[in-house]
Design a protein that fits this description.
Layout: H1 4-44, E1 57-61, H2 85-98, E2 103-107, H3 111-115, H4 130-146, E3 148-150, E4 155-157, H5 162-169, E5 175-180, E6 191-200, H6 205-218, H7 223-230, H8 232-242, E7 247-249, H9 266-270, E8 283-285, H10 288-293, H11 298-302, H12 305-308, H13 314-331, E9 338-341
Helix pairs in contact: 2-13, 4-6
């Protein structure tokens, strides 16, 4: 039998082996993960011929935040899943229409630390509304370092966005799309620039200036309550547009305006009547934040994907038509669409 002294030595030895094994496994996992993201940066994001040389990036961000729209269990009563099935359909329309001409990058808040040098903010630990402000910093930094186009995941895409992108960057300045202005600043117009729907070439100086502005803004302790009301980011972009540092894309082209210039509201999307959209539109922007905020329309966010097509809402009709159209369009194509989830 082992005496107590030998038993003590064996326990120490086993403990050391266990600790070393644990550290080794974690280190191996870390190196493997880092290697994966190094490959993404090297090949996909830096224009390797393996992924289609000179294909612009199309950034689609999704927020995975705690919600109670679908319970994982009765005990938890919440989850961090997206839990908005219609968004999977809108993302599908973007991929199907644009995947041949863009490197489509599906990203979330964790992407920033993987792709942005010196990013050290864990957004999971940041409270609202500051989390949203830092998220804007991250999105604009991705646009600066890698270029491409930022598109909301709630955009119902009806045709390839490559034409819009090429036209937008032709003047060697960023382009930015309009949105419906919800700020209470009466000096603002009905429509204002939307940094969640814009594009630029890599290392653009205007985007660099915008990033610096957003960083300074987020460090202001009095900012969180003020900016929501004044729309200061849109004001910064409006100033850049007036100075020729950005170009503004008419909201008709992304489905936030009717053909005659009136705004397309959530109420219009939920009615049965077809919209008077312009022939040059690339799709329809669905205000996802409003669907979640307004109790009257929250049912739409909860619908399973197959049931979305069955509603009488006109947005369901457009979704179904776009999904079917894009499926038919690419069924005969031999080109592989480029999509990566980072």
């Amino acid at each position: 039998m082992l005496d107590s002294k030998n038993t003590y030595k064996y326990l120490i030895a086993f403990g050391v082996i266990a600790i070393v094994s644990f550290i080794g496994m974690n280190a191996k996992q870390a190196f493997t993960t880092n290697d994966e993201y190094d490959l993404i940066r090297k090949y996909l994001l830096n224009e390797s011929p393996l992924y289609g040389f000179n294909k612009p990036k199309l950034w689609i961000h999704s927020k995975y935040e705690v919600n109670s729209r679908h319970w994982k269990s009765f005990q938890s009563r919440n989850s961090t899943d997206l839990n908005q099935p219609y968004l999977h359909l809108t993302i599908k329309t973007i991929i199907n229409h644009c995947g041949e001409d863009f490197n489509v990058c599906l990203i979330d808040d964790d992407t920033f630390s993987r792709l942005i040098p010196s990013w050290d903010i864990d957004l999971k630990t940041v409270a609202k509304p500051m989390r949203g402000y830092y998220r804007e910093v991250g999105m604009m930094q991705l646009l600066y370092y890698y270029g491409g186009m930022v598109v909301p995941n709630s955009f119902l895409c009806m045709k390839n966005l490559k034409g819009l992108y090429d036209e937008g960057v032709a003047g060697n300045v960023p382009f930015i799309c309009e949105k419906i202005n919800h700020s209470v600043d009466l000096s603002q117009n009905m429509f204002s620039p939307n940094i969640h729907f814009m594009g630029a070439k890599k290392n653009d100086e205007t985007i660099k200036s915008l990033v610096e502005y957003l960083k300074q803004r987020s460090q202001n302790p009095h900012f969180s309550s003020e900016s929501t009301f004044t729309g200061d980011t849109s004001s910064w972009c409006t100033h850049a547009i007036k100075n020729g540092q950005m170009t503004l894309v008419n909201g008709k082209r992304i489905g936030i305006k009717m053909q005659k210039g009136k705004p397309i509201l959530l109420e219009h999307l939920m009615e049965e009547e077809y919209l008077d959209i312009a022939p040059e539109t690339y799709g329809i922007f669905i205000p996802a934040h409003e669907i979640l905020r307004r109790h009257k329309y929250q049912w739409f966010a909860l619908l399973p994907s197959e049931d979305v097509f069955k509603t009488n809402a006109v947005i369901s009709k457009y979704l179904k038509a776009s999904v079917v159209d894009s499926s038919n369009e690419y069924s005969k194509s031999s080109v592989i669409r480029s999509v990566v989830s980072i």
